[in-house]
Design brief:
about 375 residues; 11 strands; about 15% strand
């Protein structure tokens, strides 16, 4: 199976920035363009200044987060053959029927079937706004079943779940032929992986992982698909791949001094930190960025936490090195089964020069990754 390559954007700032990056993706031949769904950014506004990242010189707050549905509708006329994706939203703030309607509407505007990514939800999008998020995995499973019903036919549909119900519900809106939205799931834990294989068209883990870990989790997704009577290789194996790239490995590792890049190590779980013999400053039960509430951190807390970060911990959250090193390490993930890496240019936060080099690297990577072949493996 040939490899597709996408580009991911954290939609903060101006819509024009998204148009420009989508233009880069299209001109360079990228297959997909994914945007995040955030109400509060993963970077803390209290520490957001030029010492944290040069981007603060032009963006006064990292919390200028654009709403994904309006944004993707705006970008759609410029996408051409590039597949648009939301990676990922949750079924807590929007009813599954509303998400299905969004995806079917977007399909009217795009040349290629859009991707509706669903996950269990990040607390920064929920807790500050009083949104209920109990039984998160159960809600995701029910939401996927409801959305699948609504995508598959106009209805009437009935569904009786613990969290969602349909009572002769209609969805007369249909996608043009060949453009039925694709359901991807952001999953990392066993039950979410099983749900992905049972209901989804794609798997989009939101965490970097080693090739061996990726292969193990992908095997669980495919095994669940087989158990559900589905073609396991029809589930797209995607992946979130932040990159820190420079002209040499040494220069790339120097970029890890930049606080914005260093802060990503704090998105790792306490269990990950323990593997390196370091206690996580956010507590021994911390589950990573899905439970991070960055707006509650004081600047002193951010500085204290950054002082505990090691380069090895940053390397758990991104691929770091020269172009060839980055290419080789993404290749290892492809050999483990990843067929649709979504590149996130993290090194662009280091300096204008680093941003330029990263922008020049993206087409270089895309061209070479397109020559790779993803591994297909059907569980026995």
């Amino acid at each position: 199976m040939s490899v597709e390559v996408g580009l991911a954007w954290n939609p903060v700032g101006q819509v024009q920035e998204g148009r420009d990056l989508l233009g880069v993706a299209r001109s360079a031949g990228f297959d997909g363009f994914m945007v995040f769904d955030l109400l509060i950014n993963v970077f803390p506004a209290q520490a957001w200044d030029a010492d944290f990242t040069y981007v603060a010189n032009v963006l006064p707050t990292p919390d200028q987060c654009l709403e994904f549905a309006t944004l993707l509708g705006n970008l759609a006329p410029d996408a051409g053959p590039v597949q648009l994706a939301i990676g990922v939203t949750d079924p807590h703030r929007r009813h599954p029927a509303v998400l299905a309607q969004f995806a079917l509407t977007l399909a009217q505007l795009t040349e290629r079937a859009p991707v509706l990514g669903i996950g269990a939800g990040m607390l920064e999008n929920l807790t500050p706004y009083g949104v209920a998020h109990d039984h998160q995995v159960d809600r995701v499973e029910e939401a996927l079943r409801v959305i699948r019903l609504l995508l598959d036919g106009p209805g009437p549909h009935d569904f009786a779940g613990r969290h969602f119900t349909l009572d002769k519900a209609m969805m007369g809106l249909r996608a043009p032929e060949g453009r039925t939205p694709r359901l991807w799931v952001g999953a990392g834990q066993p039950r979410m992986l099983e749900i992905t294989g049972r209901y989804a068209d794609g798997w989009m883990p939101s965490k970097m992982m080693t090739p061996a870990a990726y292969a193990r989790r992908l095997a669980k997704v495919r095994a669940a698909a087989v158990e559900a009577g589905r073609d396991p290789n029809a589930v797209v194996a995607a992946g979130w791949v932040p990159i820190v790239v420079a002209d040499t490995d040494e220069a790339a590792h120097e970029l890890l001094r930049v606080k914005a890049i260093r802060f990503t190590a704090l998105h790792a779980t306490a269990a990950t930190w323990r593997r390196f013999g370091v206690p996580h400053p956010f507590g021994e039960t911390y589950k990573g960025d899905r439970e991070l509430l960055p707006h509650r951190l004081t600047r002193a807390e951010v500085e204290h936490a950054l002082a505990e970060v090691t380069d090895e911990l940053v390397a758990t959250q991104a691929i770091i090195g020269s172009r060839q090193t980055v290419l080789d390490q993404i290749g290892d993930l492809i050999d483990a089964g990843m067929g649709y890496p979504m590149l996130f240019p993290l090194s662009a936060m280091a300096s204008p020069e680093a941003a330029q080099y990263t922008a020049e690297t993206l087409p270089w990577l895309r061209a070479r990754l397109h020559t790779r072949t993803a591994t297909e493996s059907v569980p026995k």
